[in-house]
Amino acid sequence: MKNITSFLLVVYLTSTGMMGQGKAKSNIDCNTIFICIKEEDYTALFSNSFVKDTLFVSKENTTKTSTDEYTGKYFIGEFATIEFLLPSRNNKFGDHLNDIGIEFKSRKIGVLDSIKDINSKVEIEKVYIESDTEKHLWYDALKLKENKTNLEFSILEYSAEELKMLGFTDDEIKKSISPTDFNKIVYGNHKYPRKFKSIKSIELEVNEPGLNYLKQVASTSDFRINKKFIQCNDFRIYYKLKKKLAQTVLKHIEIDLTENLPQKSINISSSIKLLVSNKTAQIEFL
Description:
Pfam families: DUF5829. The chain is α+β, with helices and mostly antiparallel strands and 286 residues long.
């Protein structure tokens, strides 16, 4: 996992004194999109004050787990996070240029086991977070066993130990908790201080292996799928088949904002552009 959303937002809000985020509804929600980008794009991410201080809670952080150690820059929202990574020699997923990760979070402990019990093509990995003084089970991650593309889906499920550390009671841990209720428990009544609410959609260009992977993921996770998009609750993944592509390409990330904003167009770098219009914004990868 290349995700540390709740931890980073708690740290931010504490440090600023604000401590505060067709089918039936799924028990999972889009939580994080990550992408490995070029160094010059990574360096430019926080250079625009509107991007850094108005739209997003912006943080750079290094995370050490039992399976990986990585540094990323984060655009943290009320209900989701966008993460940018640099290429690394660690040779884990997310360390290679143009690796794309889509992470969902379960609303209740046990969702991953229920998926795994009826599907032999998936596996669950336990990830422990580590520091110089402690180690505890952070989350379980469910993924397809076989994946030879640069796109990876995973469903994360926080451990009971992690949820207790975030302020959950024993009764709350047993319940299905929506993203809104999750934030109420973790952040109380403190208002999210920026404008990025949630991830609305992304657009991908895929080759044949990429399309096959998307179909497998949709089938495994019981997502809605048609010829144009995959959907989980209010989040959509639009895709276009381009057979000659060497790998999957992320074209844009569309986000919902907490309020209407004036129309803007910002060149974050030569390869990344931000468009703002009313209550949505779009990060384009050129």
